[in-house]
Amino acid sequence: MRSVTFAAFFLALACAGFSTSASAQVRTEPAGRLFFEGDLVRHRLDGQQGPWCVLSSRYKRGEAVAWRVRTQLPNGAVADDSTITSMVVELGSGERVPLEYGPHGNPPTDFFWANSWTVPDNYPTGSLGYKVMATLQDGTVVTWEPFTRPASVLTIIEGTPTMAAQ
């Protein structure tokens, strides 16, 4: 009987721990106004070797980071530039990169918010991180933070970009 009570106690404790962790996963503030989907990809710069538009979280000085973000309203409708007046990426350093809504691909195959930022040549290495802030038509600002796992965080690394063969 004692071992059953002990097991039940630890099961309850584990469940309480999981529920706390799950509630900590809310990544938008205020919650429920917008739903975000986004990633980081390598952006094309003249003279550099590709591939382009591939997922990456590690960038060398002189390489370009591109943000791609889709947003939806709670009813599932796309939150485009008629719903959102502005969308901005704020880097961990405080720098801001405005995103623009539009078609992507030639011919266009998708519509989303995007822009790029080239890592300055003198930028410090290390984890940078970022968050995305969307301003709705009513003035509400909804902030989204992506994954914070070390392997997923935007990180500036040593090295120089690989140049394309001439």
Defining key terms:
166 residues, mainly beta, Immunoglobulin-like, eight-stranded antiparallel β-sheet, three-stranded mixed β-sheet, 1 helix, 11 strands, globular
Account of the protein in words:
With 166 residues, the chain is mainly beta. It is built from one helix and eleven strands; from the N terminus they run αβββββββββββ. It has one helix spanning 2-23, and strands at 28-29, 35-43, 58-60, 64-72, 84-91, 96-104, 110-118, 126-127, 130-136, 141-144, 155-157. The longest helix has 22 residues, at 2-23. The chain is globular.
What's the number of domains?
1
Specify the biggest β-sheet.
8 strands, antiparallel
Please state the CA-atom Rg, rounded to the nearest Å.
20 Å
How much of the polypeptide forms β-strand, as a percent range? 35-45%
Structural class: mainly beta
The level of helicity is: 10-25%
Mean pLDDT: 87
CATH fold assignment: Immunoglobulin-like
What is the overall shape?
A: globular
As residue ranges, the low-confidence spans are 4-24
Q: CATH superfamily name?
A: Macroglobulin (MG2) domain
- Terminal CA distance reads 77 Å
Q: What are the SSEs and their pairings?
A:
Layout: H1 2-23, E1 28-29, E2 35-43, E3 58-60, E4 64-72, E5 84-91, E6 96-104, E7 110-118, E8 126-127, E9 130-136, E10 141-144, E11 155-157
Parallel strand pairs: 3-11
Antiparallel strand pairs: 1-10, 2-4, 4-7, 5-6, 5-9, 6-7, 8-11, 9-10
